[in-house]
Amino acid sequence: MTPTDTLGPDALRLLVDDPNETLSAEYKAQVDLETPLGRAKLARHIAALANHGGGHIVIGFDDNLEPASPRPQLPSRDTIARVVKDYLIPVFQCDVRLLDDPQGRTYAVVIVPTHGPTPVCCRADGPQNPSGKVQGINRGAYYIRKVGPESAPILTPEEWTPLIRRCAMAERSSILGAIELALRGGATGPDAVSAMERLENWDAAMAAAFLKGVAENGRPEIIAKSNYRFSYLIETSGELPSPNELSDMLRRVANELDPEIHTGWGAFHVFDGPLTPRSKTDQQLDGGELEFLEMNLLEADSGVGLMDVWRVSATGLASIERGYIEDTSWWKGTSPGAAFSPNQMAMGIAEVVRHATLMAREFGFATQVHFRCEWRGLKGRTLHDFHHRWMFQGHEATDDVRKSRATATIGALEANWTEVAALLAGPVMRAFGVGHVVTPAWFSTQSTEWRRNR
Q1: In whole angstroms, what is the distance from residue 446 CA to residue 417 CA?
Q2: What is the mean pLDDT of the chain?
């Protein structure tokens, strides 16, 4: 293996640059894969993180979260796969990324996905000590992450509750998708108009807050004029989650979404440390009574030049607003305000559609999702992709603003999200004269290139 190529900002890098052990992040000086005990211990952590909703194991830091010395031997994806196959059921695939710190030290980040409709169980015991006691992992046990943090077996009925709920929601979503696909469903309910009004109010408050943040924090003027904003509202007939659950919900969704659409800087990412999202209110929303999580990189420095703001409420509302990456130093061969990337646009829309779909699973009895997208600062930009050559390179937008809206049932989203993505992308691509290109089939083809490299 060789260290990961850094083509752009990567949220995983903060696990190395700003180490912080949490329920979703386990740090190790090394993992001993040469002995049965070492493999058993690693399997325990992988099982616990999967049953937690996904997470990361970072290898190369000591107990004080300082770089380990001497430097450890780092595992490969294949060795991790063998550990999972030997000890856990159902079998699933973890990824391994290698990241360097500024001093050139290399760390391994094992990316553990969330469980599916079935929780992860241990299929084999670890080795026995001289007195016959099993060590490392126990056959038949279900491990979860507990305060400490530690990876420990479930011992009480209360510890089963969140795990069972997530399994049930994953199974329910799959069934809904299959039923609606068979019945060719997808019709929206009678409350769509009032729900869309709620989404419009939420979206307008986000837009106003973004402009205010640019001005108050001395950010470049181009960010205020050239940006895009994606918002959605999940409708549910069940009990709403507690605001205290939002961070964990978002982490689980991110862990499931990242292998599918790997941007390196995922939407609605929950950082630890100085960039941790905060509980906020806004006087434009229910007179300041609606509480939401906000991550604001207009106020805090991202360290990579990106200026995102996102908000998520336990009522099912979510928004993210960003400047164009095409206007940053990450984009090659053009000047700010000159380029518009069809691939970046498509990834962004696909990410928010899939994020809403996965987030809806967390809400239990979600019925449909409303989407709203808006792009500003389009006029004078031409189509340009430096990663992927665009077949209509050079087409110029004559409109400065484009908006799109869509509503889809949960079953329709689970069965064929590309139809919703194509509907949302149509208006902005028609501004460049190539709206006919972004079909559901085109999204499906493009999405194969967005998966995390193996």
Answers
A1: 13
A2: 86
